[in-house]
């Protein structure tokens, strides 16, 4: 028998377990938003996350309660002091997670993956709470492969994703991305947005972004690319450097060649959906959320998978767009300004072909993914 929820604590309908990175948290918040739209109060959707994760700021800002767990995941499988400490933190986190599930008595647990998903799923298994998994990557994470063993259903981005009882829903994206897709599909609204952002009517807008920290190999290649294309007056590059390189010797400076290319580097971008709606070409890593957003907006891309991603998941993500003719892959080890110039030149040489490449991405898009995952939660929740 479980302890009753204290009368001062709101009833929890869904416990969203997982996080650590925006790649986990953003889809979780998108599903939470869909559940709220379906009639569940925001306070009834409780997040279980990591004290070190981005959820500590993102979840409260969205109006949902959050419980954080101590510790973090393992960096690798080596036996060393750091990982022994992490393993002890995982044990503490699992014990606390079991207690959280017992105290909140949710109707369903939604596993996002990441370190904090494991305690939530273990607690759900012990207290017999139904589990639904939502996997972001084309190749499932270890946490979600474990969760999949007890899950009633696994929401996956593609049919090839290796989880049992899989339902292809797509990867949930932010409502702002769905709105951006609407702008991108409307020539009048898109032209007005480009003008507002200072992009010339006849310019190709290249949007570069590789997460909040950035990616040094991508940054170096793009800076070299800018120099190679400096005389072209039909190119505008919006380059999100990221916090890691912005204050180093690798940080570039804004450049506008008279009658030539416009180069606009920034440390961080708060309005990514607007730039994606306005852009003609994207360059960056192929994280799960990035790939899902490119597909929903319908944006052509050059993707550089992170070579150390677990199970080479970023390459598998990128291949979802390559297979529909919407993207090109450049391996990180082969990424240079010259290599990037060749691929960019191929794509922008014919504007009609570039636009068609972007539209092809829509074949892999799932703008209703958040609603579909929310529906799975409602379907499998206990009464």
TrEMBL record:
<dbReference type="Pfam" id="PF04101">
    <property type="entry name" value="Glyco_tran_28_C"/>
</dbReference>
<feature type="binding site">
    <location>
        <position position="137"/>
    </location>
    <ligand>
        <name>UDP-N-acetyl-alpha-D-glucosamine</name>
    </ligand>
</feature>
<dbReference type="GO" id="GO:0005886">
    <property type="term" value="C:plasma membrane"/>
</dbReference>
<keyword id="KW-0472">Membrane</keyword>
<dbReference type="Pfam" id="PF03033">
    <property type="entry name" value="Glyco_transf_28"/>
</dbReference>
<comment type="similarity">
    <text>Belongs to the glycosyltransferase 28 family. MurG subfamily.</text>
</comment>
<feature type="domain" description="Glycosyl transferase family 28 C-terminal">
    <location>
        <begin position="206"/>
        <end position="372"/>
    </location>
</feature>
<dbReference type="GO" id="GO:0051991">
    <property type="term" value="F:UDP-N-acetyl-D-glucosamine:N-acetylmuramoyl-L-alanyl-D-glutamyl-meso-2,6-diaminopimelyl-D-alanyl-D-alanine-diphosphoundecaprenol 4-beta-N-acetylglucosaminlytransferase activity"/>
</dbReference>
<dbReference type="InterPro" id="IPR007235">
    <property type="entry name" value="Glyco_trans_28_C"/>
</dbReference>
<feature type="binding site">
    <location>
        <position position="174"/>
    </location>
    <ligand>
        <name>UDP-N-acetyl-alpha-D-glucosamine</name>
    </ligand>
</feature>
<keyword id="KW-0961">Cell wall biogenesis/degradation</keyword>
<feature type="binding site">
    <location>
        <position position="212"/>
    </location>
    <ligand>
        <name>UDP-N-acetyl-alpha-D-glucosamine</name>
    </ligand>
</feature>
<keyword id="KW-0132">Cell division</keyword>
<comment type="pathway">
    <text>Cell wall biogenesis; peptidoglycan biosynthesis.</text>
</comment>
<dbReference type="GO" id="GO:0051301">
    <property type="term" value="P:cell division"/>
</dbReference>
<keyword id="KW-1003">Cell membrane</keyword>
<dbReference type="GO" id="GO:0050511">
    <property type="term" value="F:undecaprenyldiphospho-muramoylpentapeptide beta-N-acetylglucosaminyltransferase activity"/>
</dbReference>
<dbReference type="GO" id="GO:0008360">
    <property type="term" value="P:regulation of cell shape"/>
</dbReference>
<dbReference type="GO" id="GO:0005975">
    <property type="term" value="P:carbohydrate metabolic process"/>
</dbReference>
<dbReference type="GO" id="GO:0071555">
    <property type="term" value="P:cell wall organization"/>
</dbReference>
<keyword id="KW-0131">Cell cycle</keyword>
<keyword id="KW-0808">Transferase</keyword>
<feature type="domain" description="Glycosyltransferase family 28 N-terminal">
    <location>
        <begin position="15"/>
        <end position="154"/>
    </location>
</feature>
<dbReference type="InterPro" id="IPR006009">
    <property type="entry name" value="GlcNAc_MurG"/>
</dbReference>
<comment type="function">
    <text>Cell wall formation. Catalyzes the transfer of a GlcNAc subunit on undecaprenyl-pyrophosphoryl-MurNAc-pentapeptide (lipid intermediate I) to form undecaprenyl-pyrophosphoryl-MurNAc-(pentapeptide)GlcNAc (lipid intermediate II).</text>
</comment>
<dbReference type="GO" id="GO:0009252">
    <property type="term" value="P:peptidoglycan biosynthetic process"/>
</dbReference>
<feature type="binding site">
    <location>
        <position position="314"/>
    </location>
    <ligand>
        <name>UDP-N-acetyl-alpha-D-glucosamine</name>
    </ligand>
</feature>
<protein>
    <recommendedName>
        <fullName>UDP-N-acetylglucosamine--N-acetylmuramyl-(pentapeptide) pyrophosphoryl-undecaprenol N-acetylglucosamine transferase</fullName>
        <ecNumber>2.4.1.227</ecNumber>
    </recommendedName>
</protein>
<keyword id="KW-0573">Peptidoglycan synthesis</keyword>
<keyword id="KW-0133">Cell shape</keyword>
<feature type="binding site">
    <location>
        <begin position="21"/>
        <end position="23"/>
    </location>
    <ligand>
        <name>UDP-N-acetyl-alpha-D-glucosamine</name>
    </ligand>
</feature>
<dbReference type="InterPro" id="IPR004276">
    <property type="entry name" value="GlycoTrans_28_N"/>
</dbReference>
<keyword id="KW-0328">Glycosyltransferase</keyword>
């Amino acid at each position: 028998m479980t302890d009753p929820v204290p009368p001062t604590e709101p009833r929890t309908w869904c416990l969203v377990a997982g996080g650590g990175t925006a790649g986990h948290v953003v889809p979780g918040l998108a599903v939470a938003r869909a559940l709220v739209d379906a009639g569940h109060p925001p306070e009834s959707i409780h997040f279980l996350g990591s004290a070190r994760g981005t959820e500590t700021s993102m979840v409260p800002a969205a109006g949902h309660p959050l419980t954080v767990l101590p510790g973090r995941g393992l960096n690798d499988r080596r036996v060393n002091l750091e990982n022994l400490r992490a393993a002890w933190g995982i044990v503490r986190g699992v014990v606390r997670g079991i207690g959280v599930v017992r105290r909140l008595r949710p109707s369903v647990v939604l596993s996002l993956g990441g370190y904090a998903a494991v305690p939530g799923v273990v607690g759900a298994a012990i207290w017999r709470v139904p589990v639904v998994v939502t996997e972001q990557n084309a190749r499932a994470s270890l946490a979600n492969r474990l969760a999949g063993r007890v899950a009633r259903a696994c929401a996956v981005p593609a049919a090839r994703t290796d989880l049992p009882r899989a339902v292809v829903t797509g990867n949930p994206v932010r409502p702002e991305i769905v709105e951006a897709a609407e702008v991108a599909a409307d020539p009048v609204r898109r032209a007005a947005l480009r003008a507002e952002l200072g992009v010339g009517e006849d310019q190709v807008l290249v949007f570069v972004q590789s997460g909040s920290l950035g990616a040094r190999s991508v940054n170096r290649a793009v800076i070299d690319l800018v120099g190679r294309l400096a005389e072209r007056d039909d190119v505008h590059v919006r380059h999100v450097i990221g916090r890691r390189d912005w204050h180093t010797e690798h940080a570039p400076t804004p450049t506008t060649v008279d009658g030539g290319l416009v180069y606009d580097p920034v440390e961080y971008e708060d309005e990514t959906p607007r730039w994606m709606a306005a852009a003609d070409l994207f360059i960056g890593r192929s994280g799960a959320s990035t790939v899902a957003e490119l597909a929903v907006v319908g944006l052509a891309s050059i993707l550089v998978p992170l070579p150390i991603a677990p199970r080479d998941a970023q390459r598998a993500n990128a291949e979802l767009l390559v297979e529909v003719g919407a993207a090109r892959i450049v391996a990180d080890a082969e990424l240079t300004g010259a290599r990037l110039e060749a691929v960019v030149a191929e794509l922008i040489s014919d504007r009609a072909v570039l636009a068609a490449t972007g539209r092809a991405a829509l074949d892999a898009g799932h703008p209703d993914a958040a609603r579909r995952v929310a529906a799975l939660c409602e379907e499998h929740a206990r009464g």
